[in-house]
Amino acid sequence: MNKKKSSGTLPLLICIAVLAACWIGAEVLYTATKYLPFCLFGLICLMPALTLLTVVIFKLEIPLKDKPELVADGESTEDEKPQKGFKSAIKGIGVAILRAFGACARFYNKRRTVIASAVALAVNITLQIRFLIMLSRMTSIYTLSYTYLIAVLVVFIILLSVEKWTAHVSEEDRDEFFVAMKKNIRSVLILIRTALLLVGVSMALKLLGFYDAQNILRIVLAVFWYYASLFTIASFTVALIKKTLFTAPALNIPTPFSIGSSGFGLIAYLEENTGITMRSLWSIKMIKGLVPYTLLAIGLVFWLSTGIVQVESYEHAAVYRFGHLSEKLLEPGIHLTLPWPLDKVEKYDTETVKKLVIGYKSVEDTDNTWSGEHGTSEYRLLLGSVDELVSINLRIEYKISDLYKYVKSSSSPDKILEAQTYNLVTDKTIHTDLETLLTIDRNAFSTQFRQELTERVKIYDTGVEIVSVVLESIHPPIDVADVYQSIVSAEIEAEKIILEAEAYASTTVTKAEAQSYKDISQANADKYSKVADAEAAVAEFMAGVEADKAYPDSYRYYKYMSAITKAYGSAKLIIVGDGIDSSNIYFGNIGQVVTPQ
Asked: Rounded CA gap, 414 and 246, in Å?
């Protein structure tokens, strides 16, 4: 009895997982460094990994059980009774679901080759677009370190180890699918480890300070990409034609000149897929006729791809068609243009605010001190007094407002802005002195400077908008800053003493004025009180005169009694003498007559 062969899917999935991990690691490194070759290398790993994973997944058939015999509607056996109600409905739904699943499974099993082809095509088209987009995002601003170089070396060793492990995985008791996929994966591992080696060499050259090979490496990785894409698509198409996609798919990518391992060269690949001995004279003649057209087709595809341009959301692009600037600018998005060099596209950041420093470049916190060094050099101006110098620092913030004017008006609008700024700074300082300049209102100065600079730049029609002007620092040159600072400190101290004296004098005068006002108010109050008393006495006297004239006896008696009351009040009187008649004596308060006792 023949022993059943094992499919060996697990080793294949491990290798595919390693390729996917390489892509994830490359994306992480690209995010951290902005070094474009990392991203391109990751996509080179991802494309064959997804293609092979698609084949592995769709190779699996959905198992189906034999179709059960159904009892005819309206018939029942002697032991069974017609099922009704809720259980019957549930069973009917379950049968319908099983039938639908069976129909879908049978459709999938019959059409899985077509489905796998559609998925592989969609994946490749998506990755082709992604690669073209990333290919245009190269920047000279990136960060590299020896840590990243060591990480690349570790990944290279891992890929080499996985490829050797895959080579030594036994093919005994395995089916033809495993044997073919094993070779496919090994060819991919050999290709990407070669690409990774080139990335490592480029990083080493940059870190050692010899040469920045990023641009050259970008072109080389693009060749790797299109080479792998061409053979992946060609091999997939051949496997579909031969109907070996799920039996023994030959999806390996040949390594030119058998780099890295024997049996994976271009000749071996052609012999395996065509069944023709390539070492014969006829085969060589055919290859000589086929290779130029193939290379021409590859070059044509690559050339046409240069007409696909992606403009980011913060950018606009100017198009030079046959050397002439087109008035139509490219908005953010993906655009199709004529291939290079028919159309040349230059992208500009039109949304980000740029900064222009006039004076020195701010690098440390000491930039805010007079006596500290400010960058590599300072911009010194001779003031109107001719014998004074000043160091000044301005930050001009601007952005591109009209890209067409920016590109067409001048070859370097930024230099025009810088020159006009320096001219305006000179004009602002030539008619003033240091003390006036140091005590200037900075906000007002910045606002006025922005308005005047805008008017000057507008004459050149550069398409530049001045967003803001910031006066960061004005101070004497650092050579005399200590002396000047001592003088300024003494002046500040003298002014402080004067202000304190003025404050004390002001306080003393205020207190004296308050006391004077209080004394004057009290004197006026006493004056008015005495005058009132005198007027009251006069009025009382005149009233007495009138009363005496009208009722002399009564008034005089009243005055007499009032005098007695005032003189004696409640005092006790002792009356002694001869001939005193008690009937003529009154007891009680003076002025109040009581009955004698």
From this structure: 61
